[in-house]
Write a structure and sequence with these properties.
alpha/beta; single chain; 6-stranded mixed β-sheet; Aldehyde Dehydrogenase, Chain A, domain 1; 23 strands; 2 domains; 496 residues; 6-stranded parallel β-sheet; Aldehyde Dehydrogenase, Chain A, domain 2
Length: 496
């Protein structure tokens, strides 16, 4: 069993690493890239490469989809209870190996280690939950009268593709792959090129948990080289995608050519509404987590604070004080604010903040790229707050995907609702108030796939998650996710 503190010290002090996967995982085994090409994986906290993995292409995707297709019939006909038992065993192994997975997740993505440990715990919970859901799959009977028997049979849709983002590699993989496996589907996963490692490790762990060869396959590579041929393959019957709006549109277009179903979890510009009667201490703490967890690199981040004017000054002062206390550092040192995932993404965030400055907006706090104070290295951006921003400004309307909080001032609850619905995105929303009726009226009228009341990011794997409008469609998590991976066959028989 890995000693976490020793492994961290070995890496930070001497650059030594435990075994990390280098190849694709296809048909139950490590598989080198057909081209022989490799791509580097970078440590965002040091802005330096630390490993290399397979740079996959269409030939590798072909092998992975063929393996999944060959395994589909047997896996789909496996008893649901047996499928569920494998998922529960995978959850047990994930818990036992949490330190190893969290170390790699933190190193590859840059996120603070304590957040990575939470992600591993959440992934394990997903496999537990869907292990149980496998036993809850059932059809229905139809009242056709005494001369007929009518019933439905839920069937797996077949081979599924999973395009996994870089901000939550393990937990996003688990929330899609676990229900797919529970429903009897096979999987080909393509992790983001900047964070390939924990998905590879997860596939190998599933194999050790008893998953048959070919049921879960992983091809690493870029979107154009590996992701595009995967979603375009005619044998793929469903695509689960998390990422940007433009790429989501491309994925949906490719899937439509094969009449394959899709679930799209896209961008967000989620409002956190604080009414005048709210517990401001709780609201300030919630706002800090909503925007600065994972350095704001969260689709559902509470990136817009909408606060009633009467408590605006007090609340913003509390949030700014907490934000100033955030400590930047390498993810493995357990900072409260980690780096951004890549140099390219740091450039995108900095460009949007610089553009705001060019429009005459001055941040209340932060606003600049930075480095790790301990080493002078890494891709960091300061915790940033812009106060009292107009509803039409790009800081309000455009997703930044970084540690940048935009504050909007509302005159009352009705104005807060108008502001909350004032962008093209509709992923999640948060509400802080002690007025039960006001909370639930807003929850009904805010356009969002999920609404948190008095605790941002409340809920868990049991609660369906997904967006509306430019934030996508379909639902992950909860039993609702199982329906993404099942089709219904109806049978009507004359019996008299």
């Amino acid at each position: 069993m890995m000693n976490l503190d020793t492994t961290i010290a070995d890496y930070l002090d001497r650059g030594q690493l435990p075994f990390l996967p280098t190849d694709h995982f296809i048909a139950g085994a490590w598989s080198p890239p057909a081209s022989g090409e490799r791509m580097e994986s970078f440590d965002p906290g040091r802005a330096a490469p630390f490993h290399a993995v397979a740079a996959g292409d269409e030939e590798d995707v072909e092998r992975a989809v063929s393996a999944a297709s060959s395994a589909q019939r047997a896996w789909g006909r496996t008893k649901p209870s047996a499928r569920g038992a494998i998922l529960v065993e995978a959850a047990r192994l994930l818990k036992a190996e949490a330190d190893r997975f969290a170390f790699v997740e933190s190193l590859d993505s840059g996120k603070p280690l304590q957040e990575a440990l939470g992600d591993v715990s959440g992934a394990a919970r997903a496999f537990e939950y869907y292990g149980a859901c496998a036993n809850a799959i059932e059809g229905a009977t139809f009242p056709l009268g005494p001369d007929y028997l009518g019933y439905s049979i839920p069937e797996p849709v077949g081979v599924t593709a999973h395009i996994i983002p870089w901000n939550y590699p393990l937990s996003t993989a688990a929330r899609g792959i676990a229900p797919a496996l529970a429903a009897g589907c096979t999987v080909v996963a393509k992790p983001a090129e900047t964070t390939p490692l924990t998905m590879l490790m997860l596939a190998e762990l599933l194999s050790r948990a008893g998953l048959p060869d070919g049921v879960c396959n992983v091809v690493t590579g870029t979107g154009p080289a590996a992701g595009a041929p995967l979603v375009a393959d005619r044998r793929v019957r469903h695509v689960t995608f998390t990422g940007s709006v433009p790429t989501g549109i491309s994925v949906m277009t490719a899937a439509a050519r094969n009449v394959a179903t899709v679930v799209l979890e896209l961008g967000g510009k989620s409002p956190l509404v604080v009414l005048a009667d709210a517990d401001l201490g709780a609201a300030a703490e919630g706002a800090i987590g909503a925007i600065f967890e994972n350095a704001g690199q969260i689709c559902s981040a509470g990136s817009r604070l909408i606060v009633e004017r009467g408590v605006h000054d007090d609340l913003v002062a509390r949030i700014a004080e907490k934000a100033r206390a955030l400590a930047m550092g390498h993810g493995l040192t357990r900072p409260t604010l980690g780096p951004l995932n890549s140099e390219a993404h740091l450039g995108r965030v900095a460009a949007k903040v610089d553009a705001a400055g060019a429009r005459g907006l001055t941040p209340l706090l932060g606003g600049r790229a930075a480095t790790d104070p301990a080493t002078g290295k890494g891709w960091f951006f300061e915790a940033t707050i812009f106060d009292d921003v107009a509803a039409t400004d790009p800081l309000v309307t455009d997703e930044i995907f970084g540690p940048v909080l935009t504050v909007q001032v509302a005159e009352d609850a009705d104005h807060a609702l108008e502001l909350a619905n004032g962008t093209d995105y509709a992923l999640v929303a948060g509400i802080y108030t002690t007025n039960f009726a006001a909370a639930h009226r807003l929850a009904q009228e805010i356009d969002a796939g999920q609404v948190f009341v008095n605790e941002y990011f409340a809920g868990g794997i049991e609660v369906p998650f997904g967006g509306n409008r430019q934030s996508g469609f379909g639902r992950e998590k909860g039993f609702a996710a199982m329906r993404n991976y099942m089709r219904v066959k109806s049978v009507a028989a004359r019996i008299a």
